[in-house]
Write a structure and sequence with these properties.
Layout: H1 2-5, H2 17-24, H3 33-50, E1 57-60, E2 66-68, E3 71-73, E4 78-81, H4 83-86, E5 107-108, E6 122-123, H5 139-156, E7 160-161, E8 166-167, E9 174-176, E10 179-180
Antiparallel strand pairs: 1-4, 2-3, 5-6, 7-10, 8-9
Bound molecules: protoporphyrin IX containing FE.
GO molecular function, one term: oxidoreductase activity, acting on paired donors, with incorporation or reduction of molecular oxygen
Binding site for heme: 136
Family: Belongs to the cytochrome P450 family.
Length: 181
């Protein structure tokens, strides 16, 4: 969101920082409150799509003759799933580098079988919580947390970024990120 304010991304379909401020200001007793929460959720999803928390997931193929993207995989093959690249693939996500809170999430039914109860549909473009059987268990909680955090921070107003991310020695984890008035 702060990068959005700094004009780092092209903004489509009224997905501006100023519009986010508008949605954050809607009160619970106003008619478009439900829409405002949904919009803020999409701001959080778009931000996480463009700057995801991780980049790859590791999988080990457990059976022979699995096919992934047209490639045949043998049992024991280690697969690096570069989901951070997939969510920027223009063949799947139109104009992927732009910030657009009106994107179709492309929800698809979850594949279920006898050993597993059916699950809520999953998005084909917001892959930052993973996809499939081991998709993040905390995804709904974290989506609501991000939505409410965003709403609270935007309502404080005039927050600005106070420097770049400070990473750990291996450059793996963010140790500090300063924002202030
Ligand atoms: C923005 C916040 C979060 C992001 C981006 C995130 C992302 C992810 C990703 C990418 C995976 C791997 C999915 C896969 O292997 O296919 C994962 C797994 C998991 N996450 Fe999260 N996560 C978040 C928050 C949380 C929270 C708040 C919880 C718990 C309350 C949680 C619990 C888990 C668990 C238990 C798994 C393992 C699921 C499994 O292997 O079946 N996550 N998460």
């Amino acid at each position: 969101m702060l990068r959005l304010k700094e004009d780092k991304y092209e903004v489509l379909n009224d997905s501006s920082f100023e519009q986010a401020l508008y949605w954050a200001d809607v009160e619970p007793d106003e008619p478009d409150y439900a829409e405002s929460l949904e919009r803020l959720r999409k701001y959080a999803l778009e931000a996480l799509r463009l700057e995801p928390q991780g980049e790859v997931l590791l999988r080990v193929c457990v059976q022979d003759n699995d096919v992934l993207g047209g490639v045949s995989l043998g049992k024991g093959t280690v697969v690096f799933v570069a989901y951070a690249a997939a969510i920027l693939d223009p063949e799947v996500v139109p104009n992927p580098a732009a910030f657009d809170v009106t994107r179709d999430e492309r929800l698809t039914p979850y594949l279920c079988n006898q050993e597993r109860a059916s699950e809520a549909p999953q998005s084909l473009i917001y892959l930052q919580h993973g996809y499939g059987r081991h998709k993040c268990l905390g995804r709904y909680a974290s989506e609501i947390t991000m939505q409410e955090l965003l709403r609270a921070m935007l309502r404080i107003g005039s927050l600005v970024r106070r420097g770049e991310l400070e990473m750990d020695e291996e450059n793996w984890f963010v140790m500090r990120f300063k924002i202030g008035f």
